[in-house]
């Protein structure tokens, strides 16, 4: 197949890790007879320095004509003044809004060989393979709010429409069909009106998926279950704020921030794929960043935007095989002197990619 992929390396370690993911995608194309073309564009702090804006018009135009976007990370100390009118993360929000990227997918998988890096006992994290599906463009982060300077009260609003819940619920049920066939929908229906609408709508959508098992879990209980028995979950469906908090809570099970990919999707096949970590300015330019999160984001791109499931699974298996061979980047190496570089780890992934 032919595909046009726009890369937005961004700042800090972004260019280093995106380059490695592009090498992996290039190898996939060569192995499987696909033609991928890559176009690099500016976003984030580097775009502010070059053009005065975090998401230049040319970047948006390039993304519009692409099948998918692979992003590194944006931000860094030189652009971190909270009072600045233009900030790197504005570009990310604009990108999500412009393309209506309402479904955020965050898989959290544990690898037995990394068990010692997780904060839970090895037997608790064995077999954890959770897909968080988080609503990304509505809920309390986008609801009406009131704040009066130093005033004595302020409020935020959690707002959902049936259609907003319906479309993200469908993404979760569809994903469950390709996995273990279970959806846990998170809400706070015992207290919040918007969450009663959430539960009612998820129940409605579930009728179209009789083959998928649905359970409703209150958010406070879910936070506890995710630490007590994370392996019981398959797909976890949640609104914007609850999904944000629970997926961050669970991310620690993977052992390093450098392991976790994400996808932000709209109703079509278009998506923006990026690691969940930031631009790690403390290690930028040293060639030691862990490329796994970005390589696994490229696997999600193959799966969701290009519908290349076998190729996506091959990339995931190659990452697992590279880890099983014992190679570790600095964030995971028990002995710092034995850590391999960003490029050397990717070389191993390529060796295992068939
Ligand atoms: P961070 O995720 O960049 O780094 C946190 C810690 O994890 C650092 O010690 C870093 O070295 C380490 N780390 C992160 N990714 C790694 C990798 N792939 N390999 C090895 N180690 C890795 O978070 P931060 O330090 O709070 O933020 C740094 C900058 O990134 C800030 O400007 C922040 O605004 C930005 N940020 C951007 C995004 C994004 O682009 N989506 C997300 C979060 C933070």
Which band does the percent of strand residues land in? 15-25%
Radius of gyration: 20 Å
List each distinct ligand once. Answer: nicotinamide-adenine-dinucleotide
Reading the helices and strands in chain order gives EHEHHEHEHEEEHEHEHEHEEHHH
- Compute the number of structural domains: 2
The averaged pLDDT comes out at 96
Derived structural class: alpha/beta
Unreliable stretches covering 5 or more consecutive residues: none
- The top-level CATH class of the largest domain is Alpha Beta
Give a count of the beta strands, DSSP E runs of length 2 or more.
12
Helix content: 25-40%
Distance between the termini: 18 Å
Shape-level CATH architecture of the largest domain: 3-Layer(aba) Sandwich
The largest sheet is:
10 strands, mixed
Q: What is the count of helical runs?
A: 12
Q: How would you name the CATH homologous superfamily of the largest domain?
A: Isopropylmalate Dehydrogenase
Shape: globular
């Amino acid at each position: 197949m032919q595909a046009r992929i726009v890369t937005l390396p961004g700042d800090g370690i972004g260019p280093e890790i995106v380059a490695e993911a592009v090498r992996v995608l290039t190898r996939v194309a060569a192995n499987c007879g696909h033609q991928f073309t890559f176009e690099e564009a500016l976003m984030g702090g580097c775009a502010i320095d070059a053009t005065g804006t975090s998401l230049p018009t040319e970047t948006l135009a390039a993304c519009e004509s692409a099948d998918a976007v692979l992003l590194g990370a944006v931000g860094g100390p030189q652009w971190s003044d909270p009072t600045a009118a233009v900030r790197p993360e504005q570009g990310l929000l604009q990108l999500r809004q412009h393309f209506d990227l309402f479904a955020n997918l965050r898989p959290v998988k544990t690898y037995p060989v990394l068990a010692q890096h997780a904060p839970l006992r090895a037997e608790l994290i064995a077999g954890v393979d959770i897909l968080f599906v988080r609503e990304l463009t509505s809920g309390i982060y986008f609801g009406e709010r009131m704040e009066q300077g130093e005033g004595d009260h302020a409020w935020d609003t959690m707002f959902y429409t049936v259609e907003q819940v319906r479309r993200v619920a469908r993404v979760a049920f569809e994903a469950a069909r390709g996995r273990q066939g279970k959806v846990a929908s998170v809400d706070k229906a015992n207290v919040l009106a918007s969450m009663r609408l959430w539960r009612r709508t998820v129940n409605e959508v579930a009728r179209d998926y009789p083959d998928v098992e649905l359970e409703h879990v209150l958010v406070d209980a879910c936070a506890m279950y995710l630490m007590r028995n994370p392996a019981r979950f398959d797909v976890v469906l949640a609104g914007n704020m609850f999904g944000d908090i629970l997926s961050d809570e669970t991310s620690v099970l993977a052992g390093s921030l450098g392991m976790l990919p994400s996808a932000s999707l709209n109703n079509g096949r278009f998506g923006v794929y990026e690691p969940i970590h930031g631009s790690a300015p403390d290690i930028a330019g040293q060639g030691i960043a862990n490329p796994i999160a970005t390589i696994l984001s490229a696997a999600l791109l193959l799966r969701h935007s290009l519908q290349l499931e076998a190729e996506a699974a091959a990339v995931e298996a190659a990452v697992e095989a590279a880890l099983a061979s014992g190679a570790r980047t600095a964030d995971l190496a028990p002995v710092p002197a034995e850590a391999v570089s960003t490029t050397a780890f990717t070389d191993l992934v390529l060796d295992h990619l068939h």
